[in-house]
Every structure is written in C-alpha cells, then in structure tokens.
Amino acid sequence: GFLIPYFIMLIAEGMPLLYLELAVGQRMRKGSIGAWKIISPYLCGVGVASVVVSFFLSMYYNVINAWAFWYLFHSFQDPLPWATCPLNSNRTGYEEECETTSSTQYFWYRQTLNISPSLEASGGVQWEQALCLTLAWLVVYLCILRGTESTGKVVYVTASLPYCVLIVYLIRGLTLHGAVNGLIYMFTPKLEQLSNPKAWISAATQIFFSLGLGFGSLIAFASYNEPSNNCERHAIIVSLINSATSIFASIVTFSIYGFKATFNYESCLNKVILLLMNTFDLEEGSLTADNLSEMKDYLMATHPQEYAHLSPQLKNCSLEAELDTAVQGTGLAFIVYSEAIKNMEVPQLYSVLYFIMLLMLGIGSMLGNTAAILTPLTDSRTIATRFSKEVISGAVCFINCVIGLIFTMEAGSYWFDIFNDYAATLSLLLIVLVETIAVCYIYGIRRFEKDLYTMTGRKPNWYWKLMWAFASPLLIISLFIFYLSDYILTGTLQYQAWDATQGQLVTKDYPGYALAMIGLLVASSTTCIPLGALVTFIRKRLKRES
C-alpha cells in the first residue's frame, strides 16, 4: 500500500527533480542562492529558503548523532544497560517506572532523554547529552574543515560502511526466529492505504528527504562537477540506488521487527500458560500454545469462578497486534532495534555495529546539510574575502551546536519533534514547486534544454520535459492541498508526551507558544521566496528612480 505511491513519487518527482537540481547547479556553478539569482534576480529568495531549511535541519538533526554516540558508548557494557531494569534506590526491587514499561523504553526515555512529563516543564540541560552533541559537531567540523575535498573523501566511508553493516544484519536478521513473520507483514498489500492522503504525503516526504530535494545541498555539490558531467545518468543511477537501498534496509528492519514481535508474542503466551498451570494445578506439558484457546474454554466451563477471578491477569496474546504496533523515527532507531539487539547472541557486537552504522548515516546527512549552508556563504565575496573557509565552517558549527543545546533539555525531545515535523516538509514542497515553475516557465524549458545540450551533448527526452512542465508541479500542488487540508481537519495540533506513572506515551495539545513556534518555523522559510522577490523589485525601482 505504501510502495505504489512511493514508486509513483519516484518516477514523477524524485528522478525528474533530482536531475533538474543537479543540472541547475552544474550549469550555474553556484550554490543555491547564486544559482537561482542567475536564473532570475527575483528568485534569490528560493536559495535563501533552501539555506534556512538546511539551517533548521542542521540545528536538530545532529542530536540524532549525539544519541547514537551515547548508545555506542554504552554498547561496550556487559550486560547492555537497556537489557534489564535497574534496581531502585533501596535495592529491594526494580525501578517502578521501568516495571510499568520495558527496559529499553526506560533506558531511552529516562536514562537517555530524562524526559519531562510535558513541553511546559522544560527542565535543565542534560550535561551528558550536551557533551555528546558537542562531540557530534566536532566530528562534523573536522569532516568539512577543508571544504568539498575533505567531504568527498569522508563520504566514501559514510556511504559504503552502512552497506557492509546492513549485509551483516540481513544475514543475521533472516536467521532469527520469527523473521519470516515480519517479512510477510511487510509484503502483504494493504491497498486500502491508497485512499489515505497521508500515505501519499509520507511517500513524497520519504522521496524528498532521502534524495535531498529542495535543501540546496544537491545544487551545492553539483556546482563542483565538471561542466561536461552526465548529470542525467547520475540522476537515474542515484535515484534507483537510493530506492533499492530503502527497500533493502526495510527487509533488514522487518526481519528484525518480526523477530521482536514473535519474541514478545511467545513470551506473552508462556506467561499465560505458566499462570494457568499454577492456578489450576495442570500437568506439565498438558497446556501448549497450540491448545491454549481450547483449554481456556474448557477451564472457563469447568472452573467459572476461579477463571473469572484470574481473567484480568490473562493477557490477550496476538502476533498480529504485536506486528501492528509499528513505530517510526527515533522510536524505531533507538527502541525497537535495541529491543531486538538485547535478545541476540553476542548483543554487544551487534549493538556496536548498529550504532556505528547509524553514526555513519547521520554524519553523511550532516555533510550534505552543512554544504547547503556553507556553499552560498563562501560564494559571497563579502564573507569569503574577510574570513577563511575554516572560520566560516567553525562559526556555522558553533552556532548550530549552541542552539542545539535546546534539544538536550528535559523537554528537548518534544522540541525535536516540532522541528522534525514542521521545519521542512511544507517548506520543501513550496521550494521545489517554485524551482520547477522557475526553470520551465521563467528561465524557459527550451533555453534549459539548450544549456543541457551545451554541457552534455544530449537534449533531455520527452519524459523529462513532461515531468518538469506538467506532472511534477501538478503532483506537488495536489500534495500541498492534501497537506493543508489534513492540518485543517486535524484541528488542534497535538504531540506525544511520556507519562512516567503509566509507562507509556499520552496525547496532549500543544501550548500556545509551541503553536507560535510552529508557525514561525514554516513562515521563516516560505516567506523568503516572496520577500526575496519584493526586495529585488524595490531595489530595481529605486535604481530606476535614481
């Protein structure tokens, strides 16, 4: 149900827009601001909007690397710290919060985030997380210190190492008990999702984020290409490799997810069987998973009072229910995987491998984000003549690191979710829509076609021109309408807060200042486009009058 919208978005959006951004960067030889200013002075705001979105992304994204460092440092312990619940202060039992939830969730919410009960209770900065964030930014700074030359070398490691780890995890994942259940769940079509606008928005968001469309990083990197570079071939190869990697990683994830769900399901069954055998003094082996439902009916009929007294303690074990409790984002990365890892043989080895892979992916993404910010800054003569690349890179990293301390507070996870949900998605749709309209109808598709022929010796075929001129803009407009209507229908925006007493997430309404922040995040990037055009118009008008 998700793969159909995903592949439609890949063909109609992903490949055409990736080709367009690579070609623009390669032709104009500038970062996002300079490239769009060459196409039209009125479009300088498009580049600024891309830089603002990349800046927002850099502010919060490196926190994921900080968390990965935190888990990596704890992965060398035996047993793993999230494998069991810690003892309480009296050492007479386990921590009450941990007993109401699971050891992996307790380690994530309490020992890693030390999360507050709501957004209003902001709390103080967690110094362990602040140190991990500083380390994450120091690593990024060392990778970008010498510009694209050093970045290119680092990417060889950050891009290739995750494949090695994924192959190891695939072999291990497929040999785990219950892996087949996860794969069946993954590949069983749920076609009713096709009528759900959120499935299409999710597919578009996945394409945008995984290919890096609209952030300006593609234009920045492409500006360093040779003018004769075949960017069409690169757009096709990168898009297909990207999607193949996504599906490959999904197979690995769902095999491990199947193992986790099967393990939880069988543990639930064993607890129910043990409880029934002890209560009704049944013979060893008389009650199994296969005859559990029949024995329940029999015991209910023969011992109605005892069974009624026991029934509140009998959990309804369901493999389907375990598989349906799918999670995404940080929950998948830090809870589900750590839950599965703790039940593997030699868990320390798989934990170290996994969190190194997560770091490589996170650092690789950060290199693209920072390049999208740094390239327009180094393109500026005013800044480049006064400061060296090392100073500019250091200033960007330092500013982001200081602002990023917000996400290491007790309520930092809630602010992370706000930035993750609202800082980029709507803005990217608008940026990419303006980019396609600008190239096709302001710069002119025939002129762009001639530029491509001059660079590569080949003109784009009918597919590319059809997608750029009609299909991609119409699809983005449709998604834009879906996105806005979904917000309107949702009503008050809500978030998931951790309730320590219940040991689970509860839904709460965002306070007024959080809603104002969401509006500011969306407006600060999207308004750059009309403001850029307005400033250019006023400047030209003043020049004429003078």
Automatic annotation (TrEMBL):
Topology class, membrane: Multi-pass membrane protein
Pfam assignment, any one: SNF
Origin superkingdom: Eukaryota
Any one of the GO BP annotations: L-proline import across plasma membrane
A GO cellular-component term linked to this record: apical plasma membrane
Keywords tagged on the record: Glycoprotein, Membrane, Metal-binding, Sodium, Symport, Transmembrane, Transmembrane helix, Transport
Entry binding sites for Na(+): S210, N242, L361, S365
Molecular functions (GO terms): L-proline transmembrane transporter activity; metal ion binding; proline:sodium symporter activity
Subcellular location(s) per record: Membrane
PANTHER family for the chain: SODIUM- AND CHLORIDE-DEPENDENT TRANSPORTER XTRP3, SODIUM/CHLORIDE DEPENDENT TRANSPORTER
Name by which UniProt lists this protein: Solute carrier family 6 member 20
Gene source species: Amazona collaria (yellow-billed parrot)
